[in-house]
Amino acid sequence: MLKSHGCGELRAEHIGQQIRLAGWVNRRRDHGGLTFLDLRDRSGVVQVVANPGTSGEFHTTAADVRAEWVLQIEGIVRLRPEGMQNAELPTGQVEVEVHRLQVLNPAKTPPFLINEESEVDEMVRLQYRYLDLRRERMQRNLVLRHKVIKYIRDTLDRRGFLEIETPILFKATPEGARDYLVPSRLYPGEVYALPQSPQQLKQLLMVSGLERYFQIARCFRDEDQRGDRQPEFTQLDVEMSFVEREDVMALLEELYTGMLASLFPERQVQATPWPRLTYPEAQNRFGTDRPDLRFGMELKDVSDLAAGSGFRVFEAAVASGGEVRAINAKGCAGFSRRELDELTQFVASFGAKGLAYLALPESGEPRSSFAKFLATDRLEALRARLEAEPGDLLLFVADRRAVVLESLARLRSHLGARLGLYDSKLLSFCWVIDFPLVQWNEQEARWDPSHHLFTAPLPEDVHLLEHQPGRARGQQYDVVLNGHETAGGSIRIHDRALQERIFQLIGLEIETAKQRFGHMLTAFEYGTPPHGGIASGMDRLCMVLAQEPNIREVIAFPKNQAARDVMAGAPSMAEPGALRDLHLQIVDGRPGRPKG
RNA sequence: GGGGGUGUAGUGUAGCGGCCAAACACGCUGCCCUGUCAAGGCAGAGAUCGCGGGUUCGAAUCCCGUCAUCCCCGCCA
Predict the structure, then answer these.
(1) Residue ranges per structural domain of chain A
(2) Which nucleotide is nearest to A455 (CA to C1')?
(3) Nucleotide nearest to A552 (CA to C1')
(4) Torsion sign over Cα A116, A120, A124, A130
(5) Distance in angstroms, CA of A343 to C1' of B62?
(6) In this structure, are residues A347 and A424 in contact, taking their beta carbons and an 8 Å threshold?
(7) Which nucleotides in chain B lie less than 7 Å from some protein C-beta?
(8) Closest nucleotide (CA of A33 to C1')?
(9) What is the rounded CA–CA span in Å between residue A82 and residue A103?
(10) Nucleotide nearest to A453 (CA to C1')
């Protein structure tokens, strides 16, 4: 080893020891006759001192080095002189007196500062990701991610789970997200698909009798990006045999609760055990199936008060089968016209045709877009329902139910963040259960599975499949963390006949199903144990734990918004020979861009 | 596919029709300096204001287009 200690490990107990260090120059403070170098490696930073008296010729070398040069240093750990200790630094009691200094590698001046947490344009960070990863923030995040995954592996191992790898080259499934396809060289026109998740494979492992499987699985989906969505992402994938819904839920809750206690004891969890909401309850109270429970501002149905109120917008919505709902933005009665316009524009992007308001100032007359149409007793009833006090601002959307829920749910999160209604360090988990098994797809005029097509219905709801499929609940469960969908799973169908009824229900011809899932259906005929599982997004979990605004900050080499790797320049144009091998011809599209 | 924001030295920003052959901070280069730790002092280099076109007597500044990037909608079983 080129070093005997990590820079950040040195303490008073090392005083007097002859040691070797190797690392990067974090900072140089040159006083002419005396030169300080902060030497950095993954373990931290320690001050190194060179002067002509103790370091001889190496003092000159020390004066010549620059930030990010790679050095090896031999020297003695000294107690720092009285008054020169640095309480800010874990190694601040000591310093290393240089006896020998070797430049292992000089460095160009980096495009941005490595040694401080300055804001840098993300494109530059991604282009020089290897330098960005040298910075404290990213090292901290990667360590956090490692610890999270290590904890999961250790704990599941102790609980009898096997970690089993599944193929990256697999079979395309037209349902769901767009697949990444890999053309086959050996079979013209045929393709592999990268898995959107190991869903089918883990169920087959249950058929195989492995009973308890998990994997830290890379998943691929060729859809447009978001701050919390990358083309490839990592899931904790779990599947268990001979379990019921409660068993899987208990496993994941214990796993995460234990992890937080063990790795993040300082982080406050809002409630344990995690609250449970049924899907209808989540929809009704928060307008979404991934409610952020860190704050209130629940949606209140005021359709009954809106009907026949005299305000045509409200009346019309209710009369045509829609709803009127409202939220109470506490203390926001002072919002300006401009601010209200902004909120209106905000909900408009989710389909709301308008945003009615009733502002109740501390003093003076209420301001409202509709109050003049309403009788006093109706206004009073509205105030009462929304528990409005002087200073509050009530915001109403009247529309189709789906639009009302969506736009108010979004408005609620928007306001929650904007008004700082919660402690951003707080962790608020909840379960959402009892999802409808299938949802009506208006465009295609058919029933679509709301989770996936192997999800089992609740036993007591099976009879509904025939005539009221929309009312049948699935044995599905989602974990929501601070408004982010963090995990989701279900008990699967292990009965061939029931599986075929589901195919029938969602309009999947049995022949088509056989083509796509024949291996599954056949497998299920050979003694399938009842089984279920869950999958949890590691990137989103780590993002929340690291308190980062997007998952790129917890991924070593992420793609940008346009799904490009700006460091390596991927994707890039294929060599003509490679295309020929793959039996491919480019018939359309822009020629490739030069790599960044 | 659509909407919005941003683009000015290496980095972060200011300037938003003439006072700008562009300012500040950090970084960088050189010199001075033996107790600093965001070291300090002095001197200096570094930008055709993303790109193209237009309006104007005059454009970093206004308009159009384009590219890049971020956020969002659609999409993501």
Answers:
(1) 7-105, 295-421
(2) B77
(3) B70
(4) positive
(5) 29
(6) no
(7) 1, 10-13, 26-29, 32-40, 68-77
(8) B34
(9) 31
(10) B77
Which one-letter amino acid corresponds to residue A455? Answer: T
Query: How much is the pLDDT for A594?
Result: 36
Q: What is the largest CA-CA distance in chain A?
A: 93
What per-residue confidence (pLDDT) applies to A360? 94
Taking the C1' atom of B11, which residue's CA lies nearest?
A: A112
Q: Which pLDDT belongs to residue A174?
A: 67
> How far apart are alpha carbons A268 and A579 in whole angstroms?
54
A224 in Cβ contact with A177 (< 8 Å): no
Q: How far is the CA of A227 from the C1' of B14 (A)?
A: 30
For the domain A7-105, what is the CATH superfamily, name and number?
Answer: Nucleic acid-binding proteins (2.40.50.140)
Token output for A276? 């449970």
Q: For A31 and B33, how far is CA from C1' in angstroms?
A: 5
Distance, angstroms, CA A158 to C1' B64? 65
ipTM: 0.94
Determine the protein residue whose CA lies at the shortest distance from the C1' of B32: A32
Contact status, residue A476 vs residue A455, Cβ threshold 8 Å:
yes
Count of other CB atoms within 10 angstroms of residue A191: 15
Question: Is A25:A67 a contact under the CB 8 Å cutoff?
Answer: yes
Q: How far is the CA of A289 from the C1' of B75 (A)?
A: 18
Q: CATH number of A295-421: 3.30.1490.20, 2.40.50.100, 3.30.420.40, 3.30.1360.30?
A: 3.30.1360.30
Q: What is the pLDDT of residue A588?
A: 64
| pLDDT confidence of residue A595 | 32
Q: Which two tokens stand for residue A154?
A: 């250790």
Distance from C-alpha of A467 to C-alpha of A465, rounded to nearest angstrom: 6
Give me the CA A20–C1' B41 separation in Å, rounded. Answer: 34
Fill in the amino acid letter for A46.
Answer: V
How many Å separate Cα A494 from the centre of its chain? 31
Q: Which nucleotide is nearest to A27 (CA to C1')?
A: B37
Quickly give A73 CA vs B11 C1' distance in Å.
30
- Distance of A227 CA from B33 C1′ (whole Å): 49
Nearest nucleotide, C1' to the C-alpha of A596? B68
Q: Do domains A7-105 and A295-421 have the same CATH topology?
A: no
Run means of pLDDT, 10 residues per run, chain A, 596 residues: 96 97 96 95 96 93 96 97 94 96 96 93 95 96 98 98 97 84 96 94 96 97 94 97 97 98 96 96 95 95 91 92 94 88 87 91 89 89 95 94 94 91 93 92 80 91 92 95 94 90 86 86 93 97 95 96 93 91 80 39
